[in-house]
Task: structure prediction
Amino acid sequence: MAKVEGSALKGHSHRAIDALAALEDRANASSVWTMELDPPPRPVPRRKRAFIMPNQIAPQGPPPPDAEVVLDGFVLLEACRVEDPDEAEKAVLEGCAITEDLSFFKKLTHLDLGDNRVQFAALAYLPVLIELHLDCNGLISLSCPAGGFPCLEVLNLSYNGLAPEAISALADIPHLRQLDLSKNELTSLPADLSAFAVLQSLNCEHNLLGLESSWLALGSIPNLRSLSLGHNRVDGLPPRAVADGAFSELTTFDLTHNQILHEEALLPVLQLGELRTLL
Result:
């Protein structure tokens, strides 16, 4: 068989030989390209334990002292939407932390200070005040300075904690004709209420009244025309309660939601000659 000459090699054989030579040249190269990378950043050191352990409670500071609640003249001016105290007539300041810059308010006739902690006597010298609401003021005792409340006719003292002795002080208000004592948890009343000479309407709802002594006390109010005793502990009207002309001016009587079981317990009502409405 004849020997094949180098010139007789196929084209693809030359390409293979060239590739092999290129690989050999690369292996014998004198310079080597390298790349250096910066080391990774060091980890941030962490605290070994938490600021507050799971079972540890942060200490609490002492509670702030209660702020003194005073009735400020500027607050009244804002409530009345006026700039001059002589123009102030009606103010509603429910739920406000509210001295006694009251002598300037010479025309203030209506004042609602419900849900505050205002002292009753601090309002005594509003010269023309006719209607006053002091419900939810935490009142237990009351005092009426001499000459205080010269024009007051309507007084709301509901939702307080008045003691029976406090009610006696209200008899010094010369023109009081409407009084609300509901929601005061009263179990008794002062024995003699005859000093309430001009009182016409009394609301004692949602209390704990029912003793005969309370009936005798109520009967001593000489000009009482409307009496509300709903939601108390009344089980009847004692005959003694209507003796000697007691309740002679009464026209409206509310005894709803009490403990009256028999109609006979209300027979003394028939002796009330002016009564027009019985609930």
In short: The chain is about 15% helix and 10% strand. Residues 47-54, 65-69 have pLDDT under 50 and may be disordered. The beta strands are 90-92, 110-112, 131-133, 154-156, 178-180, 201-203, 226-228, 252-254, 277-278.
